[in-house]
Write a structure and sequence with these properties.
CATH topology: Peptide Methionine Sulfoxide Reductase, Chain A
CATH class: Alpha Beta
Radius of gyration: 15 Å
Largest sheet: 6 strands, mixed
CATH architecture: 2-Layer Sandwich
Helix content: 10-25%
Number of domains: 1
Number of helices: 5
Number of strands: 8
CATH superfamily: Peptide methionine sulphoxide reductase MsrA
Shape: globular
Order of helices and strands: EHEEHEEEHEEHH
Strand content: 25-35%
Strand order of the largest sheet: 7-6-1-3-2-8
Structural class: alpha+beta
């Protein structure tokens, strides 16, 4: 929670390559900030060997405009929830799908959203506390806004649905 705006909250979404996730999420109603980053690795050095992180998007949102179940519903529009360590052509542990937060209520609501689905037994989206976050290099921030012709695993008609 942001002390300057009590309705402002943060959650971290990992859904494959972070470029597309950031571009999609930034246009959602109630989202006030997005930032490309890495969740739950161990290193602050972006040039270090892979340390177990998931590519993610730090997402600040107004909880009076966007609930966790609503955000999860949007998120499920751009992910394959059954795909382990892969989204589209991006394969590997860093491309796993997950929801991370320091707020236990966010995690409970995300789990409840998944558990309420008829296909919940097939979903491999991890829902975990955020233990560590590092901002990605500037070249990855708002990449598809700056370079709209870059390739993305999310189809353009979905990517820009809420633009």
């Amino acid at each position: 929670m942001n002390p300057e705006n009590p309705a402002s909250e943060e959650i971290y979404l990992a859904g494959g390559c972070l470029w597309g996730v950031q571009e999609f999420v930034r246009h959602l109603p109630g989202v006030t900030l997005t930032e490309a980053g890495r969740a739950n690795g161990t290193e602050c050095d972006l040039n270090a060997d892979y340390d177990g992180y998931a590519e993610c998007v730090r997402t600040r949102f107004s909880s009076t405009e966007l609930s966790i179940p609503e955000l999860m519903s949007y998120f499920f529009e751009i992910i394959d929830p059954y795909s382990l360590n892969r989204q589209g052509p991006d394969i590997g542990l860093k491309y796993r799908t997950g929801v991370y937060s320091k707020n236990p209520n966010h995690l409970r609501e995300a789990r409840d959203f998944i558990d309420a689905r008829e296909d919940s037994n097939r979903i491999v989206v991890e829902v975990l506390p955020l233990l560590f976050y590092v901002r990605s290099a500037e070249e990855h921030q708002d990449r598809l806004t700056k370079c709209p012709d870059e390739k993305c695993h999310i189809p353009k008609e979905v990517l820009f649905r809420y633009r």
